[in-house]
Amino acid sequence: MERERTSVRYRTGGEARGRTVRVGLLLFALLTLLSACHYRIPDLSSEGISQKTRDSLTYLYERHYTLGANMEVMADSSVLDLLPIKDKHITLHRGDRVVVAEFAIHPADTVDSVWVKLAHTQEAQGWIREGDLKRSYVPTDGISQAIHLFSHTHVSYFIIVFALFIGVLLFHAFSRERLRLVYFNDIDSVYPLFLCLLTAFSATVYESMQVFAPDMWEHYYYNPTLSPFKVPFVLSVFLLSIWLFLAVFLAVLDDIFRQLSPGAAICYLLGLVSCCIVCYFFFILTVPLYVGYLFLAVFVWLFARKVRRSAAYKYRCGRCGEKLKTTGVCPRCGAVNR
């Protein structure tokens, strides 16, 4: 029987996606290089700056927060001393908001020489040691509270358990029904693996800041921003990776629901989310041991190999859409492409 002949279609997926990834990485690098390399402390010697403003800026770059900063009690309760009166205090409870009103240095205090005056209301004001302030209070900014939620609560442990639970279920289904999973029996797209790589990269940069530049991260914690500009170089890289993650996630959603049925797409998406969570916590735990950087290098090599392999398929069958490296007989439907 003579094989059906059809015209070959150039594959726009592999080359275009590979080119898109390369362009995205290039733009990522350029934006990173254009970003600021450090926090620039303003010139406080200018005569046009009032003493109050000068003091406020000094506190900002020394303490990472300053006069007028709004904070919220995250502990069950917090005690403020009514200095200079001894043994008299007021108690604030979770959710109460305060404003930083004043700083004072007590050299004789062997516990913490820095004291901060907090104002809850005009009548309810008191002093607290800075160490106790940082342990019990969180800035009211939504970004700061999100950082506190994932860094100082048990939410992360529940996320890990959820990811492992979903991963085990999907692996069991995959072994029985050959479901689509990231990297193993993957869809025709480099974006899912790229999303996992971005998660690993973001986790590596985040934990590196925690280990090597804690003061810089603390300053960002009290003065958060979503802009990757006018922040230190490492923070710029981190924020750019977050924005790139969101862009790639949208591309992943488009590829998943275009290539799979709704049910299979949901299963694949759950598996992808589980993989991203596992990648995040894996690199968070391994970066302080320095082996995380080696694993990240291996991850980059795996992604580069997948991109190169995907770019090798330059054509698609004109009948069934199967990927082809060269023109000729389609291994799937038998049509002759030329």
List the helices and strands and how they pair.
Layout: E1 5-6, E2 9-10, H1 12-34, H2 51-63, E3 70-73, E4 77-81, E5 89-93, E6 97-105, E7 114-119, E8 125-129, H3 130-136, E9 137-139, H4 142-152, H5 155-177, H6 191-212, H7 214-222, H8 233-259, H9 262-286, H10 291-311, E10 315-316, E11 323-324, E12 328-329, E13 336-337
Parallel strand pairs: 1-13
Antiparallel strand pairs: 2-10, 3-6, 3-9, 4-5, 6-7, 7-8, 10-11, 12-13
Characterise the protein shown here.
With 338 residues, the chain is of the alpha+beta class. Helices cover 54% and strands 14% of the residues. The protein contains ten helices and 13 strands. The chain has helices spanning 12-34, 51-63, 130-136, 142-152, 155-177, 191-212, 214-222, 233-259, 262-286, 291-311; strands at 5-6, 9-10, 70-73, 77-81, 89-93, 97-105, 114-119, 125-129, 137-139, 315-316, 323-324, 328-329, 336-337. The protein has a five-stranded antiparallel beta sheet with strand order 8-7-6-3-9. Strands 1-13-12 form a three-stranded mixed beta sheet, with no helix packed on it. Helix 1 (12-34) packs antiparallel against helix 8, helix 1 packs antiparallel against helix 10 and helix 6 runs parallel beside helix 9. Residues 7-18 and 29-37 have low confidence and may be disordered.
In short:
With 338 residues, the chain is of the alpha+beta class.
Which descriptors would you attach to this protein?
338 residues, alpha+beta, five-stranded antiparallel sheet, three-stranded mixed sheet, 10 helices, 13 strands, 14% strand, elongated
